[in-house]
# Entry
Amino acid sequence: MDVTFWASASAYKNAHNRRHKSILCVPLPPNIKKLEKKIDVRGRWYTEYQLGLVSDERYAMDLYPGAARLNALCGWSDANRRDLQSRRTGGAARNFVCHQG
# Structure
């Protein structure tokens, strides 16, 4: 894990080894000035919700605009709100939480 950017979400999705690069850029609308300091890149707290750590109300709130599109491009979750990465890895949890810094 380094500080190299992925060229695109499709390059990330199709990579066999994702340890060579570590940064995905996501365009946001110009009216978005701030995001929460801690977010799940998938746009919702999927794992935390499954563990009962997030309320229904909080889960329903998008963490940033365009998350659903990025999910589809990267293959992180499907339209049924299921965690595809956990199914692919036999249930092993992946860390999708990012912090500003």
The chain has a mean pLDDT of 76.
